[in-house]
Design brief:
With 131 residues, the protein is mostly beta strands. It has strands spanning 7-9, 23-26, 34-45, 48-55, 64-69, 78-79, 82-85, 89-97, 101-110, 115-125. Strand 7 (82-85) and strand 8 (89-97) form a beta hairpin.
């Protein structure tokens, strides 16, 4: 083991003597590196699906994380995918990516109708990894 960096071992494995494959995380190898990040807001009408498209043009499918929040759902950040069904109100938020874009889909419905504003944040990571 080198005398620099950090390692986190699996249960039952000595972090000082275990093999790299027995680690949960090691700084010996590249970790996720941010490429693009941003956010915005979207107004979603009850009973409709709103999709946000974020162009990344990386040429491969990247690892992405998407968060959203809304005052009606506690005004805290939630990670996608998210599904809530409260009977009179349902919300499903999902995300996916292809070689050129990332997508966030908001599917919201409430008995009384109306429009809700959702805030979102996205993080698109650079490392291609071994797909």
């Amino acid at each position: 083991m080198s005398d620099y960096g950090f390692r986190i071992s699996k249960p039952g494995t000595d972090v000082k003597t275990g093999n790299d494959r027995d680690m949960v995380l090691t700084s010996k190898y590249p970790l996720l590196k941010g490429k693009l990040s941003g956010g915005g807001s979207v107004n979603v009408t009850s009973g409709t699906i709103s999709t946000i498209t974020i162009n990344h043009a990386l040429g491969y499918i990247p690892f992405i994380t998407i968060y959203f929040k809304n005052a009606a759902f506690g005004n805290v950040w939630y990670l996608t995918p998210f599904n809530a069904d409260a009977g009179a109100e349902t919300l499903y938020v999902s995300s996916k990516a292809d070689a050129n874009n990332a997508y966030i889909k908001f599917d919201w419905w409430i008995n009384s109708g109306g429009v809700e504003t959702f805030l979102y944040k996205y993080f698109i990571f650079l490392d291609k990894g071994k797909l």
